[in-house]
Amino acid sequence: MKEVLLLKLGEVVLKGLNRRRFESRLIANLRRRLEKVGKCSVYTMQSTIYVEPADGVDMDEVLEAVHNVFGIVAICRAAVCEKDMDAIWETVNTYLADELESAERFKVEAKRSDKKFPLNSIQICQKIGGDLDDKYDNLIPDMHNPNLRVTIEIRDKAAYVHAGKMPGPGGMPVGTNGKAALLLSGGIDSPVAGYMMAKRGLELCAVHFFSYPYTSERAKEKVMELAEQLTHYAGRMEVFVVPFTEIQEAIRDNCPEDMFTLIMRRFMMRLAEKVALEHEAGALITGESLGQVASQTMEAMNVTGAVCSIPVFRPVIGMDKEEIVQISRKIGTFETSILPYEDCCTVFTPKHPLTRPKKFKVEEAERALDVNALVERALANVESVVL
Q: Which positions does UniProt annotate for ATP binding (predicted)?
């Protein structure tokens, strides 16, 4: 029996004259994700994307490959049959045999996109629902709280039978809203921030700051593992590892201790912006949450963000830690994030950091450093890894 996936679109259908561009990008993302699984035909028709695997391709693997692709709000795994009531009845009994035997309450739902089909949606439901009620003693019709939804879709090419929708990831197709650089640490917040902005259609690259020997190679491997986990949602990603030891030592040796973290964050923003612009990314993404730590007060973020000329997106800014942790668990990054390998943000942490800094005082403290030279040397030794 031939199976297909019917992928239902969300916000994409609201894009008016731009809709074709969004659909084309979504289809391209799906095809790229399916390359490792096997040959599949992917096309759109009647506000639905069809994924038809070639003979021999494992449908479970196809489903696994597409279920994290942003832009899809629902997924239906369906059997294909002729647009004929006898064929539909046979397919319902064969394809949904296990569900029909184990369910207690059922409902039949029908959608007739092909208006030439002789029965309308209500008549299809009445016919199939009545026959199921007659055949299966274990089934009770329940229009309000069924545990099985027998769904029949009459479309242009064929009829499709399935047991209802599975939720998709929603959002916008990655790449439809541009590209941004994620400041990726080894913590919980920044991978969640990257996931959330990829869901809004941003293609991602990542910038990680590495302070060897104060941070270990294992810490860098941890960040690469987090980036790899993000690719399940964001697709291909390039990670730029920026050497940060010299900058942190210069801050330690020349700047007031209570400003260490603020000045360090300003360097991170400068470096990330330059990497972003060099690689055609138009914004930065951080995992900052208002008030979570001393460098994430409103005043501190004003000071650290002042060195940037491009937008800085902070998608978790209004979330508490538990909300961020919940998303981290959902996307599979939490267990990696809590591995005990410290990142450079923990190096030379002041005992009493400023929480309400004045920008002019921080700028005055920075004059003890050759900022441009430090930035240029760090950029000259950036390591790039494509995942």
A: 183-184, 208-209, 265, 287, 296
